[in-house]
Design brief:
Strand order of the largest sheet of chain B: 3-2-5
Strand order of the largest sheet of chain A: 3-4-5
Structural class of chain A: alpha+beta
Shape of chain A: globular
Radius of gyration of chain B: 12 Å
Largest sheet of chain A: 3 strands, antiparallel
Order of helices and strands of chain B: EEEEEH
Number of helices of chain A: 4
Oligomer: heterodimer
Order of helices and strands of chain A: EHEHHHEEE
Number of strands of chain B: 5
Largest interface: A-B, 37 and 28 residues
Strand content of chain A: 15-25%
Structural class of chain B: mainly beta
Distance between the termini of chain B: 31 Å
Helix content of chain A: 10-25%
Largest sheet of chain B: 3 strands, antiparallel
Helix content of chain B: 10-25%
Number of strands of chain A: 5
Number of helices of chain B: 1
Strand content of chain B: 35-45%
């Protein structure tokens, strides 16, 4: 019963949580987000994996980390549920949440969830096919140093 | 951090768009290299040249 994504589509479910609760820290966000690798086959139009709400703008991560958060959720074709106070957003938060190109990746009508292509140490590459024949590709650095 | 376009089945890619930077990128020899900050990401939208020929 724990792996709800394995049986929920058969009983008519449209959306189900695939993670424990998110927290406004890079450690928790990345732990649950990157753990979604391999679950793409359970998602598609009408039946979606949900990796919990967004923490963008709540103050526990820096801009690079919130961009990672938004990008990863877009690659996961996850619901983008703003979890911050919409009446008190600074320009950086607004720019992340309102980036139309990122939202377009998440909401692409093909509805295929992205997945991890490779992981070498802290560096991960994820890919997601899009309806116009293009691909979204995300280069994630989970490490503590800038890459070169 | 290096991306070989052949690894994402886009050997003939001609159009890379850096989504967060909002800029197009030219790639030579099918290899793209980016500086990615700690805990950061580079998010690309990549168009295949064969697709462009069709449309």
């Amino acid at each position: 019963m724990n792996s709800v994504w394995e049986w929920e589509p058969e009983v008519g479910g449209n959306l189900w949580r695939t993670t424990g609760d998110i927290k406004d820290t890079y450690e928790r966000m990345s732990l649950i987000g990157f753990a979604q690798a391999g679950l793409a086959k359970y998602a598609g139009p009408g039946h979606w994996n949900d990796s919990d709400m967004l923490e963008v703008g709540n103050g526990g991560m820096n801009g690079d980390e919130y961009s990672t958060h938004m990008s990863l959720w877009a690659m996961l074709t996850a619901p983008l549920l703003a979890g911050n106070d919409l009446s008190k957003m600074n320009p950086e938060t607004l720019a992340i949440l309102e980036n139309r190109d990122v939202i377009a990746i998440d909401q692409d009508r093909l509805g295929i969830q992205g997945d991890r292509l490779s992981a070498v140490g802290p560096l991960e590459i994820w890919s997601k096919p899009l309806s116009d024949g293009s691909k979204a590709v995300a280069l994630f650095n989970r490490g503590e140093l800038e890459t070169r | 951090m290096t991306l070989k376009l052949s690894n994402v089945d886009l050997k003939k890619a001609v159009n890379l768009h850096d989504v967060w930077a909002g800029k197009d990128i030219t790639v030579e020899n099918g290899i793209y290299t980016a500086v990615v900050p700690k805990h950061g990401v580079v998010l690309l939208r990549i168009q295949n040249s064969s697709h462009l020929n069709i449309h």
